[in-house]
Backbone:
């Protein structure tokens, strides 16, 4: 039945949603459909039939089958299948998982494994097809055939070789960026354009930009320069990234992550100067340049982006790539004209090359992103594959879209001016990874999820209306439509398109301008970065400053909760009438932007004059002359001087200096030095985290664990309700971490992240947890004391945030328990880096991304060696150099910092604490569970859930007959984790007295706040727990929103290891997945919303 | 279309002396490059030839044409203004007749029974418009040649109807505009250096001539391709551009290895390889 949804000619059947078709099917029926779909996808010739079948299989295993299975049936996930997944052998992985499913029957675990394998297979299939299509575009093919310098068919145009007093001319390409006027509903994803060309439509405007209040007037923000040099090398400079390199070997051209010049290298390759076919040939760069440019000649390429940060949603990097490619193509005669605008055919070729360049560089833009190459306002549409296209028979649409540039009759000048007069273009300062969103969109499209499918049709209708409004100059209507698009179809397709920051901005701008605020305009990807506000024209000048102030204020309020890469900015803009445009400069006019000379001449000035080539001397003369005569060079001498003499850091002794922070947060220098010594001498490290290989790891038996999903809980419920009513229970939410996975090391407080809309508005993790406690308290006729643990990184922001929201009006007592210990991150040892990257199983990436990763890792190994293994990591913001020392310490901190004493003073009857992670959203004080814990008279009751593929990092194991939690770090072998059926949710019910007993303490000691005794007790227990060494990724921000990620070493002691101690008894209980599931990564959110988890959480809360 | 006239260009700055170089022919006789060319064209049925030369070189050329002097006229190109202009200089000579065009610094070695010129004239005899000799050529050689786009003429192996011509295209342009069905990927139909042209081509050249700058031949051929039936035929043979580095040596080796001196020359080569060091 489901296969017919894919093959049907009739759109009504073909566009039916999978969810609707699965409703009536039981487990057996779904399994039969899966068999049919799997057989179909193996034999179908049509790419999109195949891919759609694979997405169906993924969705069935992710959503439809698990909900029909008993919740506590764990099922096993075979390690060899997992290894296949890591190795990108998805077909093999599917075979392994299907065999297990046939043998053992369907289970939650195997469904998660199959779902993951099908998901990755689908995207691999689609990506392979895009790549194949990129290679087969006419004009690109020859570059993959050329493998020897002697065969190089390009030659530099003679105009660029003609010297004037030892100065070569400079070719300059200036390119606007593009704004997506309609937001395309992500229809510019290649996969969509190729399957649904009639639905892939965007209106895209080429714009020049200036930072409001900073630059004089808008100009094309992207520039590329090309010139010949008198040595056989490639000289590359990125002015905005302040990076420059002289490349002497072909291998270095293909090493993208070696420096910050990957985009320039991708352009050189995609333009055919160094064709991709020559990679790995072992030939000499000089030989190739000899053929291309002439003996002892080379090429210099310079890129410049004028003050536009990353994440602007203006496709800056794609347009820069296109500018670089255009310049290189002009220089090598691949365009008719060396200067001026490009012809339509040439623009299309630049587009094809930019797509190729993005693939080579391991990045990926949308198909409209090279829009800046074209002039003015244009409609970009998908196109059906014709008979001569390489896509014919494979996909309905072509890889390359068609561009229709609106002329001045279709969109008159007055309408263009009206748009300029009303639109305020901004960058909100957030930089987010849109990759997961693009995957979600593709998946939803292929599954034809009904709401999203209807929204897509609606977005298409809105596009026509937006064009009509624009053509008639009715900007008020345009604003209404772009807002409708944002509120309606875009958020129906991707609820995560908006966020709390954007909503706050819209709300504040709307309140400030009332009727004069005509609309909000989302530029693309996700909001929070590039956005537009449309206002009544007479108020635009005023609005430019007001909106800037609102953005800055809102950012200040939320910068600890959301990842901002920079302060918000407002742009002035103008519609660019040329598209990409080339100019050539000769003689005295052949000058590069001043910052180029500050970068490039520093080395030249250190070289003795007699060793300088005539060309370099001529350049120095020219620069000196420009400094005297040209105003833009007026401050160049000072800037050059600054580059030559490094300046000292003024902040080194401020209040937030690293040394003061360390002192303030209880840094233990002695312990730190011991760890450094042990690390350096190899006594501790990633390899040493592991238990001895002889350790026998087994799965627990039913006797070791209670299945709470099946047991009768009536008695427990009564006991629990009574305890709640008596006020005997409190909650500890672990919120000290920065959520490094959640924000990829951005260093914000995860607890404060307004992660999703619940009951109509964005809620933070803290608000959600308080919502549950509020509801349980109300039901019990009592209140529940709630403690959030914090750290050096999260304490102050959390305090301030809770003050601002007045503790969310929580009726019970609310405490912050501040961390009392901190570590200083260290440079990793090479052996730990190698262990992490070579010994531990690694996810193989696709070909180009893998190359990028290998190159990055090689650079990081060099960085670790040259910076000094195990040295302190101090080259970042001080807060980014500290680390929390593991969640074990969070409960002892309660004892040390007086929080437990406060709780006990307030509620002497307090007997039980429920401890849980900030991201375990389903955890609440369930009276039945509480009752079960109380009835069992156990010191610690740990909640576990059945394991899914993504639940990595340890689990419940039986070691020498004793059940205990085993951290992933400590597994003797990777495969041991796959023996374990249950995953630790971290939620723990704690008997306060028994825990104090473990530390050798009593309530009286706590109430007496006897710090010395408490500290001694903690040290004693801590010494019996293992110290784990971990590698964490930390972001270092620089430039305009640029970020580097470094691996750093830190140590931690973990809560789960209490289960190994004899001083306290531990029990384990299986709880439903909805209770124990953790939200670790924003990419989980969409499935969390779709599989009913969000509704479940909402039902647990009272706001 | 009967072809009786030929135009040989030899006036380019680097061409002036090359046609006067001597080579040993496959049958062992020694003669000048220009004599080779004239031997081939007159043997193919051409009745008279005009050699376009630089001013002051007529005497040297007269002595080099050997026994063909009575069938040859010399036309001076007063200044080097491009290949197209050199041909245009012979307009009075060609009048309204179709004519063969060859370059004075190129030699040809046929793989077929008939010479390269004869092969072209055979095709041209069946045509009513320009015909250019072409060869499938690897894309790495595109920077050296005019390249044609066309479609095979049904039923005649090696004959194409030309739709466009681009001089020294990049492979990027070639891949988009010059792909010819039936050729291997990365191969294009490039000019072989011999053409049969017609009076309208002279007309296009005349129209394009501005007295300023060079007058190339290719744009006028491209114009002809748009207005009349223009054919290209594959030639079974080798071309030697004696202007290139070692061009004369390669031409000599080609001649020698395809004639009586083959064994002797191979012996020399092997001896040289064995005794010389790089």
Residues:
């Amino acid at each position: 039945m489901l296969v017919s949804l894919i093959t049907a000619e009739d759109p009504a059947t073909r566009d039916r949603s999978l969810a609707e078709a699965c409703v009536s099917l039981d487990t057996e029926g779904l399994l039969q459909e899966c068999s049919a779909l799997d057989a179909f996808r193996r034999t179908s010739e049509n790419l999109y039939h195949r891919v759609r079948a694979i997405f169906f299989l993924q969705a069935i295993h992710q959503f439809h089958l698990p909900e029909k299975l008993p919740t506590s049936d764990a099922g096993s996930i075979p390690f060899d299948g997992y290894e296949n997944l890591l190795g990108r052998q998805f077909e093999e992985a599917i075979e392994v998982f299907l065999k297990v499913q046939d043998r053992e029957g369907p289970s939650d675990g195997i469904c998660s494994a199959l779902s993951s394998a099908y998901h990755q297979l689908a995207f691999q299939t689609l990506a392979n097809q895009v790549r194949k299509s990129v290679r087969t575009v006419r004009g690109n093919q020859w570059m993959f055939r050329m493998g020897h310098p002697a065969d190089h068919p390009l030659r530099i145009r003679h105009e660029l070789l003609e010297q004037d007093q030892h100065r070569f001319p400079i070719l300059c390409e200036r390119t606007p960026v593009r704004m997506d006027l309609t937001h395309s509903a992500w229809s510019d994803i290649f996969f969509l354009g190729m399957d649904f060309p009639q639905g892939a439509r965007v209106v895209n405007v080429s714009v020049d930009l200036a930072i409001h209040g900073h630059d004089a007037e808008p100009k094309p923000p992207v520039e590329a320069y090309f010139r010949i040099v008198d040595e056989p090398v490639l000289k590359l400079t990125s002015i905005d990234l302040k990076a420059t390199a002289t490349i002497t070997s072909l291998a270095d051209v293909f090493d993208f992550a070696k420096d910050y010049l990957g985009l320039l290298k991708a352009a050189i390759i995609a333009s055919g100067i160094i064709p991709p076919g020559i990679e790995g040939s072992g030939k000499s760069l000089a030989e190739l340049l000899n053929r291309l440019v002439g003996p002892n000649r080379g090429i210099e390429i310079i890129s410049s982006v004028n003050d536009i940060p990353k994440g602007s949603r203006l496709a800056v990097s794609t347009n820069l790539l296109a500018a670089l490619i255009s310049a290189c193509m002009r220089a090598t005669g691949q365009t008719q004209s060396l200067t001026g605008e490009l012809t339509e055919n040439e623009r299309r070729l630049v587009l094809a090359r930019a797509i190729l360049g993005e693939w080579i560089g391991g990045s990926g833009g949308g198909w409209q992103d090279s829009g800046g190459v074209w002039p003015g306002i244009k409609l970009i549409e998908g196109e059906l594959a014709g008979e001569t296209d390489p896509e014919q028979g494979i996909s309905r649409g072509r890889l390359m879209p068609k561009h229709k540039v609106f002329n001045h009759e279709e969109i008159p000048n007055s309408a263009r001016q009206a748009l300029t007069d009303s639109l305020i273009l901004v960058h909100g300062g957030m930089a987010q990874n849109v990759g997961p969103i693009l995957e979600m969109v593709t998946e939803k499209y292929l599954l034809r999820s009904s709401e999203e499918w209807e929204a897509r049709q609606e977005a298409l209708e809105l596009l026509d209306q937006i064009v009509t409004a624009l053509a008639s100059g009715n900007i008020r209507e345009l604003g209404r439509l772009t807002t409708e698009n944002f509120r309606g179809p875009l958020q129906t397709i991707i609820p995560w398109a908006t966020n709390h920051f954007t909503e706050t901005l819209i709300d504040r701008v709307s309140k400030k301008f009332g009727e004069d605020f005509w609309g909000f305009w989302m530029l693309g990807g996700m909001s929070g970065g590039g956005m537009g506000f449309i206002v009544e024209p007479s108020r635009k000048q005023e609005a430019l400053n007001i909106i800037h102030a609102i953005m800055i204020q809102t950012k200040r309020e939320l910068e600890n909760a959301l990842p901002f890469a920079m302060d918000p900015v407002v742009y002035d803009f103008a519609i660019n009438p040329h598209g990409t445009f080339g100019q050539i400069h000769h003689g005295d006019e052949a000058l590069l932007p001043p910052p180029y000379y500050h970068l490039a001449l520093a080395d030249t000035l250190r070289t003795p004059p007699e060793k300088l080539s005539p060309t370099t001397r001529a350049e120095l003369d020219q620069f000196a002359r420009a400094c005297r005569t040209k105003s833009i060079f007026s401050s160049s001498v000072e800037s050059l001087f600054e580059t030559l003499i490094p300046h000292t850091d003024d902040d080194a002794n401020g209040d937030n200096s690293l040394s003061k922070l360390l002192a303030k947060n209880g840094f233990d220098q002695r312990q730190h030095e011991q760890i450094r010594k042990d690390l350096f001498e190899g006594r501790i490290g990633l390899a040493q985290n592991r238990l001895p290989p002889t350790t026998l790891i087994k799965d627990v038996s039913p006797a070791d664990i209670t299945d709470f999903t099946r047991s009768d809980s009536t008695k427990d419920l009564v006991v629990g309700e009574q305890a709640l009513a008596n006020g005997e229970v409190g909650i500890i939410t672990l919120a000290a971490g920065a959520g490094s996975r959640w924000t990829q090391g951005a260093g914000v407080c995860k607890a404060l992240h307004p992660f999703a809309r619940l009951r109509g508005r964005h809620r933070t993790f803290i608000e959600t947890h308080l919502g549950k406690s509020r509801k349980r308290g109300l039901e019990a006729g009592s209140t529940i004391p709630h403690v959030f643990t914090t750290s050096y990184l999260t304490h102050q922001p959390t305090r301030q945030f809770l003050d601002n929201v007045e503790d969310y009006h929580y009726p019970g007592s609310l405490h912050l328990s501040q961390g009392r210990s901190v570590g200083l991150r260290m440079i990793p040892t090479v052996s730990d880096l190698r262990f992490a990257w070579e010994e531990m199983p690694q996810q193989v990436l696709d070909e180009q991304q893998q190359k990028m990763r290998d190159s990055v890792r090689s650079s990081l190994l060099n960085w670790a060696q040259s910076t000094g293994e195990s040295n302190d990591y101090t080259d970042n913001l001080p807060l980014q150099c500290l680390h929390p020392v593991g969640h074990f310490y969070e409960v002892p901190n309660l004892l040390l910092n007086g929080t437990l004493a406060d709780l006990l003073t307030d509620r002497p009857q307090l007997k039980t604490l429920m401890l849980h992670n900030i991201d375990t959203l389903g955890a609440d004080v369930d009276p039945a569970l509480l009752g079960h814990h109380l009835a069992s008279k156990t010191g610690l009751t740990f909640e576990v859930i059945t394991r899914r593929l993504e639940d990595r990092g340890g689990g419940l194991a039986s070691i020498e007959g004793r059940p205990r939690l085993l951290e992933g770090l400590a597994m003797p072998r990777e495969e041991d984790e796959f023996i374990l059926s249950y995953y630790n949710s971290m939620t723990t019910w704690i008997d306060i007295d028994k825990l104090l007993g473990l530390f050798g303490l009593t309530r009286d000691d706590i109430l007496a706040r006897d710090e010395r005794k408490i500290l001694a007790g903690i040290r004693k227990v801590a010494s019996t727990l293992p110290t784990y060494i971990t590698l964490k990724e930390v972001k270092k921000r620089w430039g305009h929103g640029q970020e580097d990620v470094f691996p750093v070493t830190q140590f931690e002691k973990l809560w789960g290891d209490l289960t190994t101690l004899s001083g306290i008894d531990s029990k384990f209980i299986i709880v439903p997945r909805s209770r124990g599931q953790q939200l670790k990564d924003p990419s989980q959110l969409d499935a969390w919303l779709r599989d009913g988890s969000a509704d479940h959480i909402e039902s647990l809360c009272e706001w | 279309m009967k072809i009786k006239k030929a135009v040989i260009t030899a006036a380019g700055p680097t061409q002036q002396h090359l046609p006067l170089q001597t080579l040993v022919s496959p049958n062992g006789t020694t003669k000048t490059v220009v004599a080779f060319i004239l031997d081939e064209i007159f043997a193919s049925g051409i009745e008279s030839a005009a050699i376009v030369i630089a001013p002051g070189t007529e005497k040297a050329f007269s002595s080099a044409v050997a026994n063909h002097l009575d069938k040859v006229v010399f036309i001076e190109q007063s200044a080097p203004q491009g290949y197209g202009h050199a041909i245009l200089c012979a307009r009075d000579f060609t009048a309204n007749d179709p004519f063969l065009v060859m370059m004075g610094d190129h030699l040809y070695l046929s793989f077929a029974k008939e010479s390269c010129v004869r092969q072209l004239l055979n095709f041209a005899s069946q045509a009513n418009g320009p015909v250019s000799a072409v060869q499938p050529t690897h894309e790495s050689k595109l920077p050296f040649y005019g390249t044609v786009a066309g479609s095979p003429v049904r039923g005649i192996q090696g004959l194409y109807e030309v739709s466009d011509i681009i001089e020294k295209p990049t492979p990027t342009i070639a891949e988009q505009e010059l792909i010819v069905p039936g050729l291997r990927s990365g191969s294009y139909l490039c000019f072989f250096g011999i053409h049969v042209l017609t009076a309208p081509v002279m007309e296009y050249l005349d129209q394009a001539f501005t007295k300023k700058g060079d007058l190339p031949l290719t744009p006028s051929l491209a114009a002809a391709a748009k207005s009349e039936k223009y054919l290209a035929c594959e030639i079974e043979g080798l071309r030697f551009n004696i202007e290139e580095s070692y061009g004369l040596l390669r031409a000599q080796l080609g001649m020698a290895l395809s004639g009586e001196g083959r064994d002797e020359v191979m012996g020399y080569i092997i001896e040289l390889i064995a005794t010389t060091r790089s």
Observations:
- DSSP finds 42 helices and 31 strands in chain A.
- The first strand of chain A starts at residue 170 and ends at 175.
- Chain A has a mean pLDDT of 89.
- The first helix of chain A runs from residue 2 to 7.
